[in-house]
Amino acid sequence: MSKLFADYKKKIFGDPTRRGDLPPIIQKHLSAAERIRTDVSLSEGTYVVFDTELTGLNVKKDSIVSIGALKVFGTRIDVGNPYYRVVEPQSELTGRSVVIHGITPSEAAECPRIDKVLPEFLDFCSGGIMVGHFVSIDLAFLNKEMVRLFGLPIQNPGIDTSVLYQWLRKKEEDICAFYDGIGENVDLLTLASKYDIPISETHNALSDAYVTAQLFQRLVVAVCRFDVKLVEDLLRIGNPRKG
Predict the structure, then answer these.
(1) DSSP for 51-106?
(2) Structural domains of the chain, with CATH
(3) Engineering a disulfide at 56: which of 47, 62, 157, 185 sits with its beta carbon 3.0 to 4.6 angstroms away?
(4) Which residues pair with 77 in a beta bridge?
């Protein structure tokens, strides 16, 4: 834990009256995170399904190129109010990464840095449970910037759709006498195909967030068969740390 992070922890948890010392965006973020209800039904939950594109997967050297997100209310995707930003990365865009996500150095150079984008993304996520596919990767990059800029990680709880799917499959295996125990791929494209989710574009943060949101819809409906009723149940079985 960095000294800066430790200082923030002391301010926040040791003496709540000192929250006024924190930047306004962080005060708002903490207050919104505290108000997130997890003791409500799945249909009453508010979720932010998001994805990032990166210069690479090394969290120490690579950085964020774009962020895409959609809000989901219960199982209704709010497609009319998406969030999408291209970010000027803090590390070099390689030819390999450009081929993957299609964002060129000249395009990224004209976009704001993460210092400007992160506060507005926090605002978009306000009050929502963060959902992603292999979400630990996205959160690692976001939290690296959060700690650098504000001294603490994102406080919203999270759900990983890959972990949620694997929990569901194990439950289904228990009631399927013919399951042969063979492992399966749980990448986003594979699961999208399994659930008949159309894909128009890959490795675009907003498009992938929309595919993930549709996958999340289907998984929420499916887990209800196994007595999963509350948001806190969903958080327990979809915890990213289980992946």
Answers:
(1) EEEES-S-TTT--EEEEEEEEEETTEEEEEEEEEEE-B-SSPPPHHHHHHH---HH
(2) 3-242 (3.30.420.10)
(3) 62
(4) 72
Element containing residue 215 per DSSP (H, E): helix 205-223
pLDDT digits (tens, 9 = 90+) for 151-190: 999 999 999 999 999 999 999 887 554 555 556 899 999 9
Query: Which pair of structure tokens corresponds to residue 176?
Result: 């399927």
- pTM score: 0.88
> What is the pLDDT, as a whole number, of residue 50?
98
pLDDT of residue 22: 83
Long-range CB pairs of 215-218 (<8 Å, 24+ gap) are 215/133, 215/161, 215/165, 215/188, 215/191, 216/47, 216/49, 216/72, 216/131, 216/159, 216/161, 216/164, 217/72, 217/75, 217/77
**Residue-averaged pLDDT of the chain:** 88
